User: What shape does this take?
Amino acid sequence: MNGTTPSTVKSAMRTIDIIEYVVARPAGVVAQEIAAGLAIPVSSLSYLLATLAERHYLTREGRRYLPGPALERLASPRIAMSLADKVRPLVKSLRLQMNETASFFIRDGWHLEAIVTETAEQSLRYSISVGTRSPLHCLAAGKALLATMADAELDGYFAQARLESFTPSSITDEAQLRAELAEIRATGIGRTREEYTPGICGLGMAVMVDDVAVGAFALAIPVPRFTAEVEGRTIAKLAQAVSLFTAAEMPAV
Assistant: This one.
C-alpha cells in the first residue's frame, strides 16, 4: 500500500458526501455551509466543488451549488429515494458537526426504529444499530414523536403501551410523562437524561411533512460532555436538519 491511498480514499468519501449533501438541499447551498456541515477544510472543498461543477455533477448559480444534470445519468427512473436515503446526509452532517452519535428514527407502533445512524468517533460514545427498536417513552426522538400525536392517539398510547423502567431515571408515571410532552409540544425538543442508557443524554426533534410526523432526528451525548453550551449547539443543529429536510420536501412553486 503506498502513501497516497489514505488521501485518495478520503477525497473520494468527501466527494460523495458533498454530492449527497447538495442533493438533500435542492434549493441550493453555499460553499461555507457545505464546509461547516461536512467539516471539510475550505482549501480542500474549493478544489472538489470546482471539479464537480466542471463535470456537471453540481451546478453553480451565483454563490449557491445545486444538483447538476450529470446526476441524472446515475439515477434510475424506476426507483424513488427512500426516506433513509433522504436523511442520511443530514444525519452524517449532524455527527460531523457535533462529533456525537446521530440518528434518524421512525415510529413503528409504540416503538422507535433506527433507520439511519452515525456513531461518534470518540472513545466514550453511544452506539445504536440500524433496525434497533426501542420504546418511545425513554428516548428523546420517541418523546418528540409522542408530542406530535393528537390527544386521542396519545390516549390510545397510554392505554396500550407499557411504560417500562430501564434505569432509575426512566419516567414510568403517566401524569409526569404527559406534563413533559406538553412542554415538548411548546418547544419542539425531546429530552432524556439517562432514562434508557446510564450515562447518556439525548436530544431529539420530530420532522413534520404536511402535518404528519415522518420521523425524528436525535443526538446521543455522554453525560460528561453534556454542558449547557453543547445542549444549545445541539438544538440549533437539530433545528437546522429539520428545516433542511422539510425545505427539500416542499413542492416547487
